[in-house]
Amino acid sequence: MTNEAxxxxxxxxxxxxxxxxxxKSVLAVWNNGLAVKTEYDKKADPASRDCTMIIVVNxxxxxxxxxxxxxxxxxxxxxxxxxxxxxxxxxxINPEEGKWTxxxxxxxxxxxxxxxxIDQIGEAVKKLADVPYSRRAQAITWNAxxxxxxxxxxxxxxLWFRITNASDGKKLLNMNTHWRSRDAFKASFMNxxxxxxxxxxxxxxxxxxxxxxxxxxxxxxxSDSFHIYGSYHEDFKKFLRTVEQRSFAERTWHTKFAESxxxxxxxxxxxxxPE
Length: 275
Description:
This protein is an alpha+beta fold. It has one domain: Thymidylate synthase/dCMP hydroxymethylase domain (Thymidylate Synthase, Chain A, 2-Layer Sandwich). Helix content is 36%, strand content 25%. The protein has helices spanning 18-32, 74-86, 104-109, 120-130, 188-210, 233-245, 255-272, and strands at residues 10-15, 34-36, 48-57, 66-67, 111-113, 116-118, 138-140, 156-165, 171-183, 214-228, 252-253. A hairpin with a 2-residue loop joins strand 5 (111-113) and strand 6 (116-118). The chain is globular.
């Protein structure tokens, strides 16, 4: 593990699919991360393992898309996807009553500033539909007035998009996401899964806008602090045993396997939808 005197390590992993890239990323921070305390530690907790992480997923929609060992259930994964992509829990935002202060969906699709509401994704689509190689298509989450004062500010900071031409002639929508802080083991897989589905949806939307097929390109995920908390190191060691004892095929699922669980999640979402 990196010595604290050498500063925060910058690590990079790359793979063709999401579960392989995620697995590489958590193993990298575990093996090479900095030992550092956090604001959430209890007195007896070991130091977290932390780094600045760059994750590259070359084909984010390729199968398998799901790692069996991500913390959470398949129903939870579908609920989270819809939370990010469709805003199914935007109505839970109510800081005056001690509830949520934001959702990623609300911030990127309905950003509020000086009594104005901005669909940043809509603006990014307009920009790329007009100038596909533009470097200006992005969406931010940070609210400089609100977020420094809250105990739970957004981890996701920015999304960035650009269309490029592949060597085989395909048009590709490339996507970068930038994160202030990230729970590597317990949050990042679900984050990546949901945001690459947003990438798919935007590629389809841009295909309609431009009248030509645009496919999702590579996904790059950049975290300033990518960490494994000391409080659950023992749980993470169980994950390590899974990696050691099972083949990659036994550690992953194709989307088809999860479809029935996703249908159960959709029923759950419908049942909780406000009148």
